[in-house]
Design a protein that fits this description.
EC number (chain A): 1.4.4.2
Strand order of the largest sheet of chain B: 1-2-3-9-8-5
CATH class of the largest domain in chain A: Alpha Beta
CATH topology of the largest domain in chain A: Aspartate Aminotransferase, domain 2
CATH architecture of the largest domain in chain A: 3-Layer(aba) Sandwich
Largest sheet of chain A: 7 strands, mixed
Shape of chain A: globular
Distance between the termini of chain B: 24 Å
Pfam families (chain A): Aminotran_5, GcvP2_C
Largest interface: A-B, 6 and 9 residues
Strand content of chain B: 35-45%
Radius of gyration of chain A: 26 Å
CATH class of chain B: Mainly Beta
Protein name (chain A): glycine dehydrogenase (aminomethyl-transferring)
Helix content of chain B: 10-25%
Number of helices of chain A: 15
Oligomer: heterodimer
Shape of chain B: globular
InterPro entries (chain A): Aminotrans_V_dom (IPR000192), GDC-P_C (IPR049316), GDC_P (IPR020581), PyrdxlP-dep_Trfase (IPR015424), PyrdxlP-dep_Trfase_major (IPR015421), PyrdxlP-dep_Trfase_small (IPR015422)
Domain Glycine dehydrogenase C-terminal (chain A): 362-462
Helix content of chain A: 25-40%
CATH superfamily of the largest domain in chain A: Type I PLP-dependent aspartate aminotransferase-like (Major domain)
CATH architecture of chain B: Beta Barrel
């Protein structure tokens, strides 16, 4: 299969697109603006532009083509299967998008008088109600803007509660080895030290090791359930008892909430706070840099410390509490304005349109799909743990032993097959991890096609096609990038004439 | 090279007089893959045995390098900061991380010699 080098550099309809700064010509313009009148220098305080800004000069069709072409190089859940583990890349219903774009919701200004935005406050209050209902928790802080922000918000509430009880000396946070990297990072941001908890051979937290680490200086445990091995922490009730017995709080990372929505009320597990990634579980496109939202549900022990603002039912309808209030001890404010409102609208639209039966079916379908992948692939890949999984299936690289192919090579080969690769080398508790989360989005047909491809690649790898894997991907605009060179001598900024 | 001693975290130390030279083992550099970033300790920093002393990052992972002994840092190896790739080429030689003035030479007896370390690596396979 030889490739024809075209004169243009383009490969058929796959256009070799330059940076926007390399396009256009001086004086080229997309809009017809009136000539500026005499410039009043005093209005600029004597400040004058001495050098050109260096903005590209382009016509409107050039701009439209440039960004349309870039968008065509993108791969997202709308293009195809996206089994990125622990990320819950699932379909975002167009109905939620339509509702979020209604002018009465999309065109609000956060400084509008509250009596003119009662509907918007009702959206925040209504979503808060359903998040409390789905988790069984009595309170929720709505304003955190993302998962890690929610973690930090929960930890700040925990810190405030300890300090309020005169136990501010509790500075150690226990975090299992399989945790998302954001957990120890959030703890460190909160001024805490991080103490790792090992896992047992079955991929769950080692309860005895956890108990041995408890002490009067422990502030909380941060646990993800289901965890990042795709397993339910079956001893979670005992874990909660041990934590509370030691005077510490129990933080749950809700990143994998999609596996248990409508099935488990986290309040029943003894959890004190948990953030909910609305952009994962409740219908907001993510992975493109946001915005997300990470409302954090709180137990009675922590509810008083929830940050402002929050919505209350007052004499004149719904009111936003933005300052001190009797009985409450908010630790402060975590975000400007009132949270990620557009994400709230999508989440509420999703919850109401799915209904309780729909939400229950979504979480069970997500678990069923992951188990289908695990069952159909376990004889050719190497499943890391025995037994059924929850929302994601974890494999390690034992099946590649002596093949010369690594997890990285395997993932790159999947790109040539037209799939976004699974999460790789995470969690760190298994060697060369391949973590697949299909979500409830995928049909059996899609999963069967993917399974056939993975089985084919595994057979190729075992048959000694290492060289082919090492050179993958070959069907992409750029082939295998030199990650080492990119990390050692990163080129972070385009400069005129640098031609890079 | 037989006078090198190793930790279970894959650091090595070679001692002359009361001065130790510390690096990461060849096994460690191989497990990390291409090293792309190194941070070494400042001279004069006091370290207890097991303290985080340096940082090493590869394309795959970021790890801490722990001090195998207690003491005071004499100097870090600027060459590996400028060229992290040296760690892959000479982990147990020129790509040492830092030198340290030992405050308790008795700690050395708690470390593994080459034969014991090789036996330990076999248990990891």
């Amino acid at each position: 299969m030889s490739e024809t080098n075209s004169i243009s550099g383009n490969k058929g309809l796959q256009i070799e697109e330059k940076l926007i700064f390399e396009l256009g010509n001086p004086g080229c313009i997309g809009v017809d603006l009136p000539e500026p009148g005499p410039v009043d220098l005093d209005r600029m305080g004597g400040v004058r532009k001495r050098e050109p800004f260096g903005l590209p000069d382009l016509s409107e069709p050039q701009v439209v083509r440039h960004y349309t072409r870039l968008s065509q190089k993108n791969y997202g859940i709308d293009t195809g299967f996206y089994p990125l583990g622990s990320c819950t890349m699932k379909h975002n219903p167009r109905l939620s998008e339509k509702v979020a774009r209604l002018p009465g919701l999309a065109d609000l200004h956060p400084f509008q008088p509250q009596k003119t935005v009662q509907g918007a406050l009702e959206v925040i209050d209504g979503l808060a109600h359903w998040l409390k209902e789905l988790t069984g928790m009595p309170a929720v802080a709505m304003s955190p803007a993302a998962g890690a922000h929610g973690e930090w918000c929960g930890l700040m509430a925990i810190r405030s509660a300890h300090e309020d009880k005169g136990e501010g000396h509790r500075r150690r946070v226990l975090v299992p080895e399989s945790a998302h990297g954001t957990n120890p990072a959030s703890a460190a941001m909160c001024g805490y030290t991080v103490d790792p908890i090992p896992a047992k051979d079955n991929g769950r937290v080692d309860l005895d090791a956890l108990k041995a680490k408890l002490g009067p200086d422990v502030a909380c445990l941060m646990l993800t359930n289901p965890n990042t091995c795709g397993l339910f922490e079956s001893e979670i009730i005992e874990i909660a008892k041990a934590i509370h017995g030691a005077g510490a709080y129990f933080y749950c990372d809700g990143a994998n909430f999609n596996a248990i929505v409508g099935r488990v009320k986290v309040a029943d597990l003894g959890i004190d706070c948990m953030h909910i990634n609305l952009h994962k579980t409740f219908s907001t496109p993510h992975g493109g840099g946001g915005p997300g939202a990470g409302p954090t549900v709180l137990s009675d022990a922590l509810a008083d410390y929830a940050p402002v603002p929050y919505v209350v039912h007052g004499k004149n309808g719904l009111e936003l509490v933005e300052g001190p209030r009797e009985g409450a001890k908010p630790f402060g404010r975590v975000k400007g304005y009132h949270g990620q409102f557009g994400v709230f609208v999508r989440a509420l639209a999703y919850i109401l349109s799915m209904g309780s039966d729909g939400l229950r079916q979504a979480s069970s379908d997500a678990v069923l799909n992951a188990n289908y992948l695990q069952a159909r692939l376990s004889d050719v890949l190497s499943a890391s743990f025995e037994g059924p999984c929850m929302h994601e299936a974890l494999f390690d690289d034992r099946f590649l032993k002596d093949s010369g192919v690594t997890t990285l090579d395997f993932a790159k080969a999947l790109i040539d097959e037209g799939y976004h690769p699974m999460t790789m080398y995470f969690p760190l508790v298994v060697h060369g991890a391949l973590l697949m989360e299909p979500t409830e989005t995928e049909s059996k047909d899609t999963l069967d096609q993917f399974i056939a491809v993975v089985r084919g690649l595994a057979a190729k790898a075992k048959a000694g096609a290492a060289e082919e894997f090492k050179s993958a991907p070959r069907n992409t605009p750029r082939r295998r990038l030199d990650e080492t060179l990119a990390a050692r001598t990163p080129v972070l900024r385009w400069k005129a004439g640098s031609n890079q | 090279m037989s006078d090198m001693r190793f930790t279970k975290d894959h650091e090595w130390i070679k001692v002359e007089g009361d001065t130790g030279t510390v690096g990461i083992s060849d096994y460690a550099q191989h497990a990390l893959g291409d090293v792309v970033f190194v941070e070494v300790p400042e001279p004069g920093r006091k370290l207890a045995k097991g303290d985080e002393a340096a940082v090493v990052e590869s394309v795959k992972a970021a790890s801490e390098v722990y001090s195998p002994v207690s003491g005071t840092v004499i100097k870090g190896n600027a060459a590996i900061v400028d060229q992290p790739g040296l760690v892959n080429e000479a982990a147990e030689g020129g790509a040492w991380f830092f030198t340290i003035k030992l405050s308790n030479a008795a700690e050395l007896s708690e470390l593994m010699d080459r034969a014991a370390y090789d036996a330990y690596l076999k248990t990891l396979e």
